[in-house]
Amino acid sequence: PVVLFFTGGGAPCEVYVRLLREMGRSWRVLVVEREGYGRSIRGDDTGEEGTSSSRGKQIMARDSAEELSALLRVMGVKGPYVLVAHSYGAIVAREFLDVQGVHLDKVVGLALIEPASELLYQTHKPVIPPPAFDAVLKGVDVDKVTRLREESGMTDAEWDDAIRGIEKTAPGAALEECRASGRILADKHQLTRHVMSPWPVAVLRCNWAVELQKLFDAGVEAGNGSDEERKQVREFLWAWRAFDDEVRAGLDMAEGGVTRRYTYFEECGHDVPSRRPDVVIQEVGWVM
User: Fold this and answer.
1) What is the CATH number assigned to the segment(s) 2-118+148-208+252-287?
2) Is the distance from CB of 82 to CB of 96 less than 8 angstroms?
3) Which InterPro entries match (predicted)?
């Protein structure tokens, strides 16, 4: 099978360099760099109309899924596919599933890593984390608190490539309509209709709230944020934990006898693909 890897929102392939390298040792991997991400240009950047959008138009998950489907046809990559998706990439992956239709011969299974869900963006508004978080984090050495640079295991060159990739991707990522795409996916009632029932599905959840709490505590210790801003961040952290618990409790592990796997890995947060690619690979291997 061919692994189709869907990156998270605003995250080009350079962010996942270690994970992609390790997956490539065992499987054929194609990275889905959406329109405007990394080296993937907007369709009209070459002076021609894109297949789904033109400059300045918001990009829906469905657009990205349709473009990927068309690209795979042109490339002659017929699958079957294992869909591996991180964060917002899970919304795009599930739209891709919808575009493909329910064909057992095209899909082997799904591994959803810290996935965004239909209601995530509706539950947490206006952005994740909330604007008040920026005020609380003012002057805080985020890398010192999170130790992401150290724990990523990247070389200096790889880290620099990732930073440049993120900066280059930012304009394109800003055009993605995450909230509207989540709402559209919700209206399709994939879970109610058991759209994923034919395949094994692995879901990996981590402990992002703890990492956010550490950052919040560092900001408070530095004297940052007004009482109201701190209150807003505390409410967000509470809501995030509650939402995560609801998602975990609501996942039916054995519906219809179909194999499901839910793994809670509390040792790191949302950036688990960068910190612990081995944990992600375990989930992909299980789907295989």
Assistant:
1) 3.40.50.1820
2) no
3) AB_hydrolase_1, AB_hydrolase_fold
